[in-house]
Hints:
- The structure holds 2 protein chains of 2 kinds.
- Chain A is an all-alpha fold.
- Chain A is about 80% helix and about 0% strand.
- In chain A, helix 1 packs antiparallel against helix 2 and helix 2 runs antiparallel to helix 3 (about 55-90).
- Chain B is mainly α.
- Chain B is built from 8 helices and no strands.
- Chain B has helices at about 1-25, 25-50, 50-75, 80, 85-95, 95-115, 135-140, 140-160.
- In chain B, helix 2 runs antiparallel to helix 3 (about 50-75).
- The longest helix of chain B has 26 residues, at about 50-75.
- The chains are: A mainly alpha, B mainly alpha.
- At the A-B interface, helix 1, helix 2 and helix 3 of A face helix 1, helix 2, helix 3, helix 6 and helix 7 of B.
Amino acid sequence: MNILTIAILTTAFLLIITGLYLLARTHNMIRIIIAVEIVMKAITLLLIFAGYLNGNFALAQTFVVTMIVIEVIVAVVAAGIAINIFRINGDMNVGKLNKLNG
Amino acid sequence: MQQSIIIIICLVAMVLLGLAAAMFRSMVKAAISLAGISAVLAVALFLMGAPWAALFELSVCAGLVTAIFISAISLTSPDRKQPEKVSEHKSRFASLPFILIFAGVSLIAVFILGGFVIDPVAGQVTAGAAVTFREAFWNMRQADILGQVIIILAGAFAVVILFKEGGKA
C-alpha cells in the first residue's frame, strides 16, 4: 500500500475510535451529537477514498452529498430534541432523564 | 508527491482536531473544532479530486452545522446550571490520547506488515467511471434526490413541531 492509502485508512479509523469513545464516555447531549458528527466525517473520508480507489469520483461524490444532507437533518433534529429536553429538565445530562421511569 | 504531503498534513490535522473536540471542556470550543475538521476535510477532498463534495462539506458542514451547534449551545448553556468539574472532565478523557496513539501505531503496523493491497490500480476503469458529477447526480441518482427532498421536508417539519409553542397540554 502507498503512504497516502495508509494515512487515509488510519485517519478514518482513528476518527471513528474518537467518536465512539466520546459516545461511550460523555453524558452531555450536545457532545453526543458532536461524536456522531465526528464518526460521519470519517465515513465521508472513506466514501471518497472508495471513489479514489476505483476512479469513480462522480458516484462517490453523489453519495457524499446525500450523506451530508442526512447529517445536517440529524444534527438539526437532535439539537432540537436536546433543547426541548433542556427546557423540560433543566439539564443536558442524559443520565438524569428519568421522567419515564416506572 | 507535494499534493500527497498536503493531504497527509490535512489528515493529521483532522485527527488532532477530533481529539480537541473530545477533550475541550467548553462546548463552543468543541463545536469550533468540529468545524475545523470539516474545513480540513474539505481541503483534503478537493486535493483528492472531489471538488463538489468539498464544496458541500465546507459550506454545509463547516458553516450550517456549526451555526446550529452554536445556537443549541447558547440556547441550553449547560455550564450555567451545574458546571462539570474540570478535574472530572480531564480524568474522563485523559486516556483518549494514549488510546489514539496506540491505535494509530497498531493500524499503521498492520497496514504495512499485513500485506494488504488496497491501492488504486493504474488504468483501471470501472463501470460508470467516465460520467461527470452532473450526470451521476441528476441521471443516475434520481430516486435519491427525491429521498433527499423528503428528508429535508421531514427535518423542517420536525423542527416546527419541536419548537411549537403552547398547546393544550
